[in-house]
Amino acid sequence: MEQQKVILLVDDTPDNLTILCELLKSQFKLKIATTGEKAIQIANAESPPDLILLDVIMPGMNGYEVCRMLKKSPTTSNIPIIFLTGLSTPEDIKFGEDLGGAGFLTKPINPTDVLKRVHEVLQNNHK
């Protein structure tokens, strides 16, 4: 059996993390960070996640900064990142894609869209 994929959930809102955990825990191993700094720490740990779901608007380091730092590092540059955000203008989406994001999911999250996007990105990125 294929090893369970690991997803790092990064969001400063407990309710969003709860919804995502409920949605994903039966299919994936989950790691959680509530700050950008913690997300970078987890991504650089010994067993990096297969995918990161990253909130854009967080106190301190925002999701775009986190993405920029992860994409700069050879250790984490290949981890796909899906942005989770209330920002959904074409400019926001283009900015995230230019940073190397693998997609955008808007809040409030739609469970069907989240699962579909997560599976698509993991499929396209399988090692």
What would the keywords be for this entry?
127 residues; Rossmann fold; 5-stranded parallel β-sheet; 5 helices; 42% helix
General description of the model:
The chain is of the alpha/beta class. The chain has helices at residues 14-24, 36-43, 63-72, 90-98, 111-125; strands at 6-10, 29-33, 51-55, 81-85, 103-106. The protein has 5 helices and 5 strands. Strands 2-1-3-4-5 form a 5-stranded parallel beta sheet, sandwiched between helices. β1 (6-10), α1 and β2 form a beta-alpha-beta unit. α2 (36-43) runs parallel beside α3.
**For the CA atoms, what is the radius of gyration?**
13 Å
Strand segment count: 5
Give the N-terminus to C-terminus distance in angstroms: 15 Å
Q: Fraction of residues in helices? A: 40-55%
Tell me the strand order in the biggest sheet: 2-1-3-4-5
CATH class: Alpha Beta
Principal-axis shape: globular
Shape-level CATH architecture:
3-Layer(aba) Sandwich
What is the H-and-E element order?
Answer: EHEHEHEHEH
CATH superfamily grouping? Response regulator
